[in-house]
Design a protein that fits this description.
mainly beta; seven-stranded antiparallel beta sheet
Length: 712
């Protein structure tokens, strides 16, 4: 038994060894192994500098002896340029030539014994970036300084090219760590071009180019100072190295430039005398060398320069004036402000106000003006050279009176009403009292004694008018009082009446039905008028009317039983119109009451297509009176006629729009509707008795005897 166990163990061990030997033999040492299965991977090239690159790769197979690197350049392969141990997966090539027109190709193979894997290769084109941002600083007028940025690593140096006679020549060569070059061999008033390139052996990078115009260095920081009286000293900075001196020129404020002197080389000051009769003078200085001159610098001396003034925030007694001092012209400002008068060309000998701030602006607020007066203003500024004035401006103060509107009159009844106003400007003075005044004559004032006092200040206010008489016409105006007086708004008028200004002043319980026609058997429509010039009908044919007058007028009447000079009543009607533009006339529709059955007399109440209401009478001639209240002709409107105690009230959509002192009774048992130059749809006609008698039964138009045909 023991011998069998030992034999089995030996067989298992031998199998394990055979299996492992087989794996080793099948790896890279096996000539039959797949060469692609153990070749290097992820080959990459990175630039280190213009003459060196690093080659990197990876390898997963561990049973190899190393790597072989081949390189090709310019069509020629160098085999086994490097042989590396298996632990190395990168290699630096330091023999790169920065020829950007040619490329390198690298090929890498792994090897084990005499067996090589499949190769992997990569190509690389050398880079040789050139300098950029070439600048030329003219430090002096006998040399220039060149500066640039170095964008390459590994170059041997830089070549400086200079253009002469339209040809580039190599002017100098410097080391690689130098990024600045000074050229001391220049000529004045010459245009010079430079070009800088990096180099490595016989190879050059791209170039950076720049040109400069070489001139005498100009002076700067010209200053003018007073040294007493009208004596001035000019000082400046000397920046030139080749000047033979400086030229000084002068120009009076109203003259031309003239040469007033020369200095010796390196002299940077000059004395001059200022003519006190001038407002200002300008100087300019420039260097010269023979015919060569530098750019000039200039400065001015004299009274300040002031921009045009701006006037804002004008009230009845004040205004704000603003402007700027454009130039101090060589000396500090001693004082500044605004002067003014009422006749023009103001100076500081007139009224003036100082601006005591130290800024270059002039801002002054003057508050002692008179209302409704024209003022002339000028800004002024004074320095050691004298005083300067701005151009003149003018303005007119406000009249000091408030500005306001009168509100519409509302809540009108027999003895009171509501009005008020809106004050949108106080006139420059505080509003000390406001309200409304009224009377029976136009243009009422507070002197009439009928007015309210409703607080102070601007804004909206409401006023209650009391103590009025019934059925009286009144006029009302809002007013506002300030220090300057009292000012009135626009005028409104109204008429008091026994009832209020809304239809609901009489409750439904006080109305008894006298006649009701809803036209419910005719789809609530009684059409009057059509495109056929005055033809009218009810859609089921029960009611048919045709009253034609000159082709455009139509009137349809009802006969109502029991009407015997009814004095206290209301007539309700709801209708809308449609204009079909006959004879280029305005269309209108109306309610008719109090009509003789021969059509000789009736009263009407209706609405034009323009939106104006009409109220009038007909007695052989039309007498129509427009009421200034707007309606909507093309929408359903409710019109109500109320006759009560000898007065007639007209309501439009339950709002009172007209009152007539002499009431018109409903009599002759006639009531109807009419239309001209259009057509009208009627929804209902109601008649209510306001005498308090019992409600009567509803009437309809089904009785043929109730129809009356009356020709226009």
């Amino acid at each position: 038994m023991r011998q069998k166990i030992v034999a089995c163990f030996l067989m298992l061990s031998l199998g394990f060894l055979l299996e492992n030997c087989s794996k080793i033999f099948e790896n890279p040492y096996d000539p039959k192994v797949n060469k692609d299965s153990w070749k290097p991977l992820n080959l990459n090239v990175e630039t280190q500098n213009i003459s060196e690159v690093e080659i990197q790769w990876s390898q997963e197979e561990k049973h190899i002896e190393g790597f072989v690197i081949d390189r090709e350049w310019n069509g020629e392969w160098i085999e086994q340029i490097a042989i590396l141990e298996p632990k190395n997966t990168n290699w630096n090539d330091t023999t790169i030539m920065p020829d950007t027109l040619k490329s390198y190709t690298y090929r890498i193979k792994a090897f084990a014994g005499s067996v090589f894997s499949s190769p992997i290769q990569v190509s690389y084109t050398p880079q040789f970036p050139g300098p950029n941002n070439l600048t030329i600083n003219k430090e002096r007028d006998y040399f220039v300084e060149l500066n640039w940025n170095d964008n390459s690593t590994g170059e041997q140096g830089f070549v400086i090219f200079k253009k002469a006679n339209q040809q580039w020549v190599i002017y100098d060569t410097i080391m690689s760590n130098e990024l600045t070059y000074n050229d001391y061999h220049i000529d004045l008033d010459s245009q010079i071009s430079y070009k800088v390139q990096a180099y490595f052996k016989e190879f050059y990078s791209n170039s950076a180019e720049k040109e400069v115009m070489v001139q005498l260095m100009s002076p700067d920081s010209l200053k003018i100072e007073s040294i007493g009286g009208n004596n001035l000293i000019l000082n400046w900075n000397d920046n030139s190295s080749k000047e033979q001196g400086y030229i000084i020129e002068k120009k009076p404020d109203t003259g031309e430039w003239s040469n007033i002197g020369l200095t010796e080389p390196n002299v940077s000051s000059f004395h001059d005398v200022f003519d006190l009769g001038l407002q200002g003078v300008s100087y300019r200085v420039y260097a010269f060398n023979g015919e060569h001159v530098s750019e000039a610098i200039d400065a001015s001396w004299g009274i300040p320069s002031i921009s045009d003034i701006n006037i804002i925030n004008v009230t009845a007694t004040s205004a704000k004036i603003k402007t700027l001092i454009i130039e101090k012209n060589g000396s500090d400002i001693i004082n500044k402000g605004v002067c003014y008068n009422v006749y023009g060309s103001p100076t500081i000998d007139n009224d003036f106000v100082y601006d005591n701030t130290s800024s270059d602006s002039i801002i002054v607020e003057i508050s002692n003006f008179d209302p409704d007066k024209t003022y002339y203003v000028r800004a002024f500024a004074k320095n050691s050279a004298g005083i300067a004035y701005s151009t003149q401006n003018e303005f007119t103060t406000l009249n000091g009176l408030p500005q306001l509107n009168t509100n519409e009159v509302s809540n009108i009844n027999g003895t009171s009403a509501t009005c008020g106003g809106y004050i949108y400007f106080d006139g420059g003075f505080e509003i000390t009292q406001r309200g409304v005044c009224w009377g029976t004559n136009s243009n009422p004032t507070i002197e009439g004694g009928l007015f309210t006092a409703d607080g102070t200040g601007t804004g909206t206010f409401s006023s209650n008018i009391t103590g009025l008489n019934v059925d009286q016409s009144y006029y009302v105006r809002a007013y506002a009082t300030n220090l300057n007086g009292t000012y009135y708004g626009d005028e409104k008028s109204f008429i008091t009446h026994e009832f209020g200004s809304v239809y609901s002043d009489i409750s439904d319980d006080d109305r008894s039905n006298f006649f009701i026609e809803d036209f419910d058997n005719n789809d609530n429509q009684w059409w009057v008028g059509s495109d056929d010039y005055g033809y009218s009908e009810i859609s089921d044919g029960l009611w048919v009317r045709q009253f034609i007058h000159d082709g455009y007028y139509n009137r349809s009447l009802l006969a109502i039983d029991g009407i015997n000079d009814l004095s206290n009543f209301e007539i309700h009607i709801r209708f809308k119109g449609e204009d079909f533009s006959q004879a280029d006339q305005s269309a209108y529709n109306f309610l008719i009451w109090n009509s003789n059955n021969d059509g000789s007399y009736f009263n009407i109440y209706g609405l034009f297509d323009s939106g104006n209401f009409i109220f009038g009478t007909y007695n052989n001639d039309w007498n129509l009176f427009d009421i200034e209240s707007q309606g909507n002709y093309n929408a359903f409107n409710q019109l109500v006629v109320r006759n009560y105690n000898g007065k007639t009230y007209l309501f439009y959509n339950e709002e009172l729009i007209y009152t007539k002192t002499n009431g018109i009774n409903l009599s002759y048992e006639e009531l109807g509707i009419g239309v001209a130059y259009g057509k009208m749809s009627t929804d209902y006609i109601y008649v209510f008795n306001l005498d308090g008698s019992g409600k009567k039964s509803r009437k309809t138009g089904k009785n043929e005897n109730s129809q009356q045909r009356i020709n226009f």
